[in-house]
Write a structure and sequence with these properties.
- By secondary structure, the chain is α+β, with helices and mostly antiparallel strands.
- The protein has helices at residues 10-16, 57-64, 96-107, 113-124, and strands at residues 2-4, 22-26, 36-38, 41-42, 48-52, 67-73, 81-92, 128-141.
- Strands 1, 2, 3, 4, 5, 6, 7 and 8 form an eight-stranded antiparallel sheet that branches.
- It is globular, with a radius of gyration of 15 Å.
Length: 142
């Protein structure tokens, strides 16, 4: 395992651009934390962003304590690999619908009318964008 406490590497970003699920944990939750699978996007600047409803439990917890982490692992059948990003998280009021549209295309493909309808439902609701600003990045490749 290696830790770079400041940023994602080019190899990390390449890995994180794949349609993999991340497991998000936020501070202030039950002990132990209760990770949830999420869609995410690694930005060119090395932050991790995702979208959610503005009144979700994770947003309420992040407003009290902005620490969060996400772990992304390679799927079964591939060599073992994971990347973990932990840091302060901001709740941004803008950009969530654009992010949801990009992620739906990445994870679902929108040529399926059912999935296009699912996206329309997401876009009909208020959303916020969560941005994890990396403070600690850990990775493992075997």
């Amino acid at each position: 395992m290696s830790t770079d406490t400041s940023s994602l590497t080019a190899e990390d970003l390449e890995f994180l651009r794949r349609p993999l699920h991340g497991f998000l944990s936020v501070a202030g939750g039950p002990v132990p934390p209760q990770p949830r699978p999420v869609w995410f996007e690694a930005t060119a600047e090395g932050a991790i962003q995702l979208f959610t409803g503005p009144d979700t439990l994770k947003v309420r917890r992040l407003r009290r304590d902005p620490r969060a982490s996400i772990v992304v692992a390679a799927p079964a059948g591939e060599r073992e690999r994971w990347v973990s990003v932990a840091g302060r998280t901001t709740v941004e009021p803008d950009g969530a619908h654009d992010l949801a549209t990009r992620l739906a295309a990445r994870y679902w493909g929108l040529e399926d009318p059912t999935r296009a309808d699912d996206l329309a439902e997401i876009l009909a609701e208020d959303q916020v964008r969560l941005v994890i600003h990396p403070e600690t990045v850990s990775r493992y490749t075997y």
